[in-house]
Amino acid sequence: MFDEFVEHVGTPMGKAGKGLPNVQFEGFEPSPYPPGDPRAQIDDDVEDPILDPSAAKAPVFDLRSVQFDFPADLISMAVSSDWVVMGLVTNTLVLIDLSHSEHVIKIQIPRPPNALNIYKLFVDPSGRHIIVTSTQGENWYLFRTWKKPRQLKGFKMVIESIAWNKAALLSTSHTATSTREILIGSRHGVLYEAVLNAEEDFFKSVERQLQPVFSLPEQQPITGVKFDFFPPGVSNKVLIIVTTPTRIYQFIGTPRNEEGKVFVGIFNSYQDATPKLSELPGNLETSSLSFYTPNAGQAGSLPSTLAWLTGPGVYHGTMNFTSNTDDFVDGASLLPYPHSSLVPDADQNEPPIALSSTEFHFLLLYKDRITAVCGLDEKPSFEEVVPMKPSERVQGMTSDPVRGTFWVYTSKSLFELDITNESRDVWSIFLELGQYDTALKYAKTASQRDHILSAQGDAYFKQGRFFQAAQCYAQCSISFEAVALKFIDAGERDPLRAYLISRLERTRKTDLTQRMMLATWLVEFYLSKCNELDDLVVSESISQDVESLKTEKSILEEDLRQFLDTYKSNLDPATIFELIQSHGRTDIYLHFATVIGDFTSVIEHWILEEEWLKAIDVINGQSDLDVYYRFSSVLLRNAPKDTVDSWLRQPALDPIRLIPALLQLQHRPRDPLSPNQAIRYLKHLIFEKEETSSTIHNLLITFYASSSYAQDDDGALLQYLSIVDPITEKPYYDLDYALRICKQAGKTQACVHIYSQMGLFENSVDLALEKGDVDLARINADKPEDDIQLRKKLWLKVARYVVQDKKEIKEAMRFLEHTDLIKIEDILPFFPDFVVIDDFKEEIASALQSYSNHIEDLKSEMDNATSTAESIKDDIAALKNRFVTVDAGEQCSVCNFTFSPCLHTFHADCLIGLVKEYRPAHVLRRIINLQTELMQGSTPTTLNGDVNPISQPSTPVPGVPKSAKHTLISAGFAPIQGGTKAAVGLGRGLLSAGDKLRDLIVPDALAAVVSAPVGWMPGMGGSRKGGPKKTIIGGKKAEKLVAELDDLLASSCPLCESVVAGLDKPFVKEGEDDTSWAL
User: Is beta strand 190-197 parallel, antiparallel or unpaired with respect to 104-108?
Assistant: First the structure.
């Protein structure tokens, strides 16, 4: 396997030349300076891509042997697109794809070695087409996928060089089997145009695809040929370069778009004209042409340098495809062959046998060594002896034009020249040449960059290019003091300012002190320069045009503002303010204060300048409310309208904190053309923001009552005083405070209104009358609508004032028309004793007639009342004789009710039980008193003096139900159908203040007393056994008590009454579980 034999497989740019060096950034490598050295403080913010520091010591070239056993001696070799093609002395072709090096392809040319000797191999850039030429003039063609080559019978020549159509072969749209148009240089100086194709039909007429296009007059071998279409993307021109051992030709023209005849027209144009050529002496048989092409793998890439191996040396130059002449090689020069330092006894005049070009070097292969010469300074940078056995000889050197790999081969060995760090020392060469920018491009370490920048800065300083020198010094390690003194000594303050700016930009952010010092010094530079320009403008404004100076000044001031914006964090505000004020730069002072957010200083400045509107504009842009509060007084005093406008735009303000400022306008003379701005602001708070604070409302009253506000017009004040809270119906302001303020200001109507709000109607009427305002007094006299007596009293006060104080009799009479509370007789006592009644004679007559009518009405009402009383008396007497007939089988309405056509009936004890639930407390107390008196007078005793409790007979009466044994008491009320039990249930659940009284009533005992026959009361007579008796009260008194008790118990039906009393009680009591009402 091929990879196993290559020693450098794992190294960068090994196999196929792929792989890139590791890239780092400046500042990550160790500092080349000892600790504490100021040069070590190179800006760590600038990150230029540089290689690993180890790359600065890595070798540029390394010749490595490829371990491969050749079955026969190697004669020629070519490499392209990672395809290696080797021709052996046995006419065997060995093909190896470096991307799959385990596959080695061997193809035999069907000619014996004694009949064919391989001379050279040519491989196209794509690695698909292979041409083999021999010393006998036979040429063979091999397509990469073929198993055997085919002879090009029409190609009877020894081919020295071939120019492939790279643009077509590397294009993705190109057909892989065709080479497209190529140029072939022969040994006899004839140039051919040909097209090869791997298709079978091509070989039927291969001669037609080959035609000579140009013959060189010297008939020397064409050792090199190349053509390039340009410009890229258009390709409407082509440059053809042809070399012989002594001459180099340049052909330029427009290609034809005709297959096989692209270049014919170009060369026909040179039949009678001489192309651009250069000639050098000598006749080097190994002469060759080499190019270096950046991005060689791209189809449209163009070569950048040219190298031609000649007898005197290497002719080289830079390709210029934009040239307007017929010479496209710029800066052409001849590089003599270097002397060998490794082989002192070598023939120094012996020319190389092969040439290859890299980006910065020319590779020269000798018969025993390989040498690399730098094309920048033309000095050897590498030389190494090719290791060979005694029987070996160096055959040549080839390169992969696409991948950029280089190979050296002998008759028995193969070597690859590994180029890993070609630009290692390039920076120093460009530095010596004075090409500093290019040197910086190739610098590898911080020390190299620092060395270049130092040298570049010194060069610029010597040339008087001080600004460029300042930029270079700012990036290198030269001490700050040395550079600053250098510019100061030269009197170049502007470049010094540029140096300080660059130095500040590159100083670490952690070096706070250094950054502050630099920034402060720069501010001083800017200010001094501004003042200098001001002086120049003033001094030269008379003699010449100073517009350029003004423009420069404007630019400088703008630069200073930008500087302050950028480096505000590195400046001490106090120091900068003092510095700016010392230079008298007010505009810069305001800008810096704005930049650092010190708006207080800006506002204070405008206030000192009495620029009130500018101060307000600054405040309007602030979110800090303390700024509003701090300057509210002075601004409201001098610009009230604009200040209030500013407040209205800031809804977050606390109006309480603005009260001191608002009070300034209390006694300010009123401007009839402008409203009081304090009142305007307070009205906004109250009516738009719905402020309810009593302090704000009191303040508005203060302004309304102020002597400077509408002294003769209290309309606004009275309108405001009438505003009340819609929920509490109370005013938002403090009534006592408002009353005191209005009294002090002499606002009578307002005071009267406030007295009314306070409910002091007498005071309000008195005050109105005191001021002689009868209408106001009359209005306030009507305000206590719920208190008729007070209203009458107030009206009498008004009437007294009208009659006695104003002595207006007629007005007093008209006064009676405004109210119906007082009559003429009410105000007669207010008239003087000797007054003529002519003015109110009609009113007196009307009043007397009214009284007469009223007396008649009263008489009629008394007669009706007397008649009604007599009827009631008769009804009461009739009720005493009322009775009810009850059947023996009638049931109690409580125990087990039955329906009666018109009446409820009750047992005495049942009636008492119901009555005590619904009678009021005073009735219950009277029942208890009657119960007590009756029980004291009807308590029977035994012979022994023991109390015999009243009880029902224990022996049942035959044929009479138990429930019928109770005495029945009738209540003459209409029955309630189905409502008895409901009434009982409701009655028993009611609670009242007489619950304890109800517990004292004993229904059974009381029923026994009530139901006893008239004329016989228990305890009134002796027992049937004639035992001793004890009389407490007389019979008539007992009868009277029983009658009163009966009236109390039977005055109304308890069942009907319970229904009315229980209307507001729930059907289901609390704690009961009744689901019958559930839906």
Answer: unpaired
CB 413 within 8 A of CB 391: no
Contacts of 875 (CB under 8 A, 6+ apart): none
| Residue 401, φ and ψ in degrees, nearest 5 | -70, -15
Q: What is the DSSP letter of 684?
A: I
Measured CA to CA, the distance from residue 461 to residue 474 in angstroms comes to 13
Rounded CA separation 341/455 (Å): 32
Which element (helix H / strand E) includes 585? none
Q: What is the 3-state secondary structure (H, E, C) of 109-147?
A: CCCCCCCCCEEEEEECCCCCEEEEEECCCCEEEEECCCC
Q: Per DSSP, what are the bridge partners of residue 131?
A: 122, 141
* CA–CA separation, 29 and 26 (whole Å): 7
Residues 530, 554: Cα–Cα separation, whole Å: 9
Tokens, residue 923:
């009735």
Q: Give the C-alpha separation, 824 to 845, whole Å.
A: 10
Name residue 108's beta-bridge partners.
92
Q: Is the dihedral of CA 729, 735, 738, 744 positive or negative?
A: positive
Among 60, 55, 1, CA closest to 23: 55
Q: Give Cα 1062 to chain centroid, integer Å.
A: 69
pLDDT at position 319 is: 96
SS (H, E, C) 262-324: CCHHHHHCCCCCCCEEEECCCCCCCCCEEEECCCCCCCCCCCCEEEEECCCEEEEEEECCCCC
User: Distance between CA atoms of 808 and 786, rounded to whole angstroms?
Assistant: 30
Q: Which two tokens stand for residue 427?
A: 């920076």
- CA distances to 86, 168, 694, 740, 746 from 303, rounded to whole Å, are 26, 16, 92, 104, 107
| Residue 1038 phi, psi (nearest 5) | -65, -40
Length of the chain: 1079
pLDDT digits (tens, 9 = 90+) for 696-725: 888 888 887 775 555 556 777 777 777 777
State how far the Cα of 874 lies from the Cα of 122, in Å rounded to an integer: 159
Q: How many helices (H) and strands (E) does the chain have?
A: 38, 32
**3-state secondary structure at position 927:** helix
What's the pTM? 0.56
Which tokens go with 610?
Answer: 């009495």
The token duo for 87 is: 């021709």
Omega into 231 within 30° of 0, i.e. cis?
A: yes
- Whether 160 contacts 135, CB under 8 Å: no
Which one has a higher pLDDT value, 898 or 439? 439
CB-facing half-sphere around the CA of 873: CA atoms within 13 A: 6
Residues 1049, 1051, 1056, 1060: is their CA dihedral positive or negative?
negative
Check: CB of residue 890 under 8 Å from CB of residue 898: yes
Percent helix, strand, coil in the chain, to 5, is 40, 15, 40
- C-alpha separations of 540 from 36, 531, 537, 549, 819 in Å: 51, 14, 5, 10, 96
Reduced to 3 states, what is the DSSP secondary structure of residue 372? strand
Euclidean distance between CA atoms 409 and 77, whole angstroms: 8
Q: What is the DSSP letter of 30?
A: P
For residue 1017, what are its two tokens? 């009361």
Please give the mean pLDDT across all residues of the chain. Answer: 79
User: Tell me, what DSSP letter sits at residue 235?
Assistant: -
Contact 446, 39 (CB under 8 A): no
Please give the structure tokens belonging to residue 281: 């002496």
Quick one: which of 46, 8, 54 has its CA closest to 27? 46
Q: Work out the pLDDT band at 990, boundaries 50, 70, 90.
A: very low
Q: First-to-last CA distance in the chain? A: 99
Nearest-Å Rg of the Cα atoms of the chain is 66
> Averaged over 206-211, what is the pLDDT?
76
Q: What is the rounded distance in angstroms from the CA atom of residue 190 to the CA atom of residue 181?
A: 16
Degrees (nearest 5) of the Cα angle 511, 517, 519?
Answer: 95
Give the C-alpha separation, 211 to 182, whole Å. Answer: 11
